[in-house]
Amino acid sequence: MKDKKIEYKILRPRIPKELDEFYFSNDDIQNEDTFSMSVVSSCSIENQIAQQISFKQMIFRNVTFKEVSFEGIDLTDVIFENCDLSNVDFRGAIIHRVEMKNCKILGIDLSEATLQNVVLEDCNGNYAFFRFTKCKQVNFKNCVLNDTDFQEAKFTKVGFNHCNLAQSQMSGTKLKGMDFSNCEIEGIGVRMEDLYGVIVSPMQAVSLSKLLGIIIKI
Fold first, then answer.
1. What is the pLDDT of residue 1?
2. How far apart are CA 159 and CA 26, in angstroms?
């Protein structure tokens, strides 16, 4: 049977075909710096702390971010391919027209960030933080998001397709219209009022019925 789940239309990153290669050094990144129109590949960005920096019209390929804190970063028209952003601090980020493909985002902190026109595909995001994050027109595809914190997030046209959300926390996040029917949601943490209008499979409905105090007799 054909999967009829809705995927919201996402505006793709607007990146020129011709980009210069750029190499970061330890002294390259300072507060409020802007980097644009370049490709960064096969390198590590390590031990960097900066605020309010901007990456615009850039591609990162096979890049490892280690011990990095870019609070309030502005990511506009950016693609991350095969990158490791585990435990990166992007709190309060502004992220627009961004794609993350086959990336490790374990423990990434996107608390209080704003995401719009964003695609995360084939990413491992266990233990990621999206608390108080505003997500508008965001698609998660084939992502592992176990134990992820989405508490008090605001979702507008957000899709989860074939994602593992086991043990994730979504308390305080309104899930009306969200379709989790082909996702793993065992042990998801939600409040009863958050579930109004959520779309789930029959088996998921049985599991979620425990939150309502319903006893199903078979």
1. 42
2. 38
Give me 153's structure tokens. 């997030």
3-class DSSP state for residue 56? strand
Helix (H) or strand (E) holding 206: helix 202-208
Q: Give pLDDT, residue 218.
A: 60
- Taking the alpha carbons at both ends of the chain, their separation in whole angstroms is 27
Structure tokens at 23: 């190499």
pTM over 0.85: yes
Instruction: Tell which residue, 13, 11, 14, 6, has the closest CA to residue 157.
Output: 6
Task: Choose among 188, 126, 113: nearest CA to 153.
Answer: 113
Please determine, for residue 3, whether its predicted confidence score (pLDDT) is greater than 60. Answer: no
Contact partners, residue 25, CB within 8 Å, separation at least 6? none
4 within 8 A of 25, measured Cβ to Cβ: no
- β-pair partners for 48: 68
CA separation for the pair 202, 211 (Å, rounded): 15
| Residue 112 contacts residue 89 (beta carbons within 8 Å) | no
Phi, psi of 193 (to 5 degrees): -70, -20
Number of C-beta neighbours around residue 90 at 10 A: 24
Structure tokens at 162: 């074939």
Give how far the C-alpha of residue 214 lies from the chain's centroid of Cα atoms, to the nearest Å: 33
Inter-CA distances, 26 with 23, 49, 50, 87, 189, Å: 10, 10, 12, 19, 41
Helix (H, G, I), strand (E, B) or coil at 133: coil
Cα–Cα dist 139/63, whole Å: 23
The amino acid present at 124, given as its one-letter code, is: N
